[in-house]
Amino acid sequence: MKRGCTQCGECLNVCPVYALYKREEYAPKGKRLLLEQIDPEFGGSPDSSLPWEDIRELARLCAGCERCQQACARKLSTSDLLAEARARNPHWTQTLWDVWIRRAGPLWPMAGKIAMLAPDSVIPGVLRSSVETARALVDLEPCEPWMTLRPTRKVSGVRVALFSGCTAKNARPRWISNARQLLAGWGYDLVDIADFACCGGTLHHAGQLGALAEVRERNLELWRKAGKPVMASFCASCKHSLDSYTAVLSAEEGKEWKQKCVGLSSLLVEPQINPTGKAPAAVGYHQPCHWGTADPDLPLLTAGLPGLKKGTGLCCGMGGILKMSNPDLSADMARKCLEGFAPEIRHIVTGCSGCVMQLAAAGGKDVQVRHWLDVAALANSRI
């Protein structure tokens, strides 16, 4: 039997849902107090009187950011507990989210363009968050590089496969081409694996554990067939999800997988970084929740964008299925996150695909949100 929550309250300091509501029953420890009573792994009984509708409501109050796990002395993940509760209590939104992620990707740009045509005056309030999210799928006009990167030494004999993730594949292919250009510029041997599936993180959060197992096994099999290259990701959430694959691997292969799953920027060793003078006067940085304390992007951007200001807000509220199951909460979290930037900041960069979409949706026409791959380029090249 697992040891459960001690109700110490450390999670209250980092939970973005609690920061909005200031109600302890919405905090991770409050959810765990209820959910552990019906979870056999924590000594609970599935026959508890807690109604499933109440559990579903609890699941609508979590963005899956896992900040609580990072703060917890026992490293308990309330997000995992809620994902398991969702899996035991299926709902139509979970199936629809699975279809949107795994089947409808090629339609994302079209959905964005249609949403751009809809006048704000005719959009019902209940659909506003969804329309704003769809609009964010439409890419911004390319900008001149704000910083250039040049290797001071080349890497030799290292095979790298790029894990681009769903958003880049379907809505931001420019990120992929720029990432490949950077890796080639550093001398890495690129392994072309175009058939990677979704990382599975958002499927896990939705309680679609069967779908998660499918995409995880596909990605692992492709990695093995390719000779187990280094796996480079430029999305913090994808990297976090890929790391979780170790749970189903042997100790030996899990260790190898963990070592070879890295953030793209960590492969750009010993870079010569030069600001181009094209950056706006005030630029903010949103640190993705899933980087935790090991953020490989921030040192790169701090060197290339003098005066970069890190936002003080918590989770952006993307939260995967939260966009569908509780769009109002998701939008409120994004607005709260944007309030963590100084008023003069109208340009934000980040290193997570989902964070780009979420903050762009909340910022609308007032704030431009870009991935760092939109603003950094290999020296003597163009994005």
Task: Summarize this structure briefly.
The protein is α/β, with parallel strands linked by helices and 383 residues long. Helices cover 44% and strands 11% of the residues. It is built from 19 helices and eleven strands.
Q: Assembly type of the shown chains?
A: single chain
Q: What is the share of helical residues?
A: 40-55%
Query: Got a strand count?
Result: 11
Strand order of the largest sheet: 3-2-4-5
Rg, Cα atoms, Å: 21 Å
Q: Helical stretch count?
A: 19
Could you name the key traits of this structure?
44% helix; 383 residues; alpha/beta; 11 strands; globular; four-stranded parallel beta sheet
Q: What order do the helices and strands come in, and which of them pair?
A:
Layout: H1 16-21, H2 28-35, H3 52-59, H4 67-71, H5 78-88, H6 92-102, H7 108-117, H8 125-135, E1 147-151, E2 159-163, H9 165-171, H10 173-185, E3 189-191, H11 201-205, H12 209-225, E4 230-233, H13 236-243, H14 251-260, E5 261-263, E6 271-275, E7 284-286, H15 297-304, E8 309-310, H16 322-325, H17 327-338, E9 347-350, H18 353-363, E10 368-371, H19 372-375, E11 376-378
Parallel strand pairs: 1-11, 2-3, 2-4, 4-5, 7-8, 7-9, 9-10
Antiparallel strand pairs: 1-6
Helix pairs in contact: 2-5, 3-5, 7-8, 8-18, 9-10, 17-18
